[in-house]
Amino acid sequence: MFVRRLSIQRIDSSGSPHPCPIGWIDNFAMRNFTNDAVFDDTLPAADGLLEAGHRVPLDRLQPAMEDWFRRKGYLKPDERLEVSENAGSPGNIDCDKVH
């Protein structure tokens, strides 16, 4: 539905990534604790995958999700969240190189 496909990974204490369950991602997407409309353009798609519109800033999404996951008890104190745009996402295509 949305152009960008974001990887949502829980990084454990050893540094290994694990896809966040879609239930966690959906819980964040459905909540309204910030009343911040910038996160309205998101759609949980699968474990570790969130679709998002272009107006969703990764630099604000990552800390907001990590804070929410900690509040819910999903992340342990020695874990962190990594949010990145998938390399194959249409949002990452250099339009100057597409013919």
Structure commentary:
The protein has one domain (4-85). 24% of the residues lie in helices and 26% in strands. The chain has helices spanning 22-30, 58-72; strands at residues 4-11, 17-19, 42-46, 49-52, 80-85. Strands 1, 2, 3, 4 and 5 form a 5-stranded antiparallel β-sheet that branches. β3 and β4 form a beta hairpin. The chain is globular and about 35 Å long. The two termini are 24 Å apart. The model is unreliable at 91-99 (pLDDT under 50).
Low-confidence stretches: 91-99
Strand content: 25-35%
Largest sheet: 5 strands, antiparallel
Helix content: 10-25%
User: Order of helices and strands, N to C?
Assistant: EEHEEHE
Instruction: Supply the helix-strand structural class.
Output: alpha+beta
Span between N and C termini? 24 Å
User: What integer value in Å does the Rg equal?
Assistant: 14 Å
Mean pLDDT: 85
**In the residues, how many domains can be counted?**
1
Count of separate DSSP helical elements = 2
What labels would you give this structure?
99 residues, disordered C terminus, five-stranded antiparallel beta sheet, alpha+beta, 2 helices, 24% helix, single chain
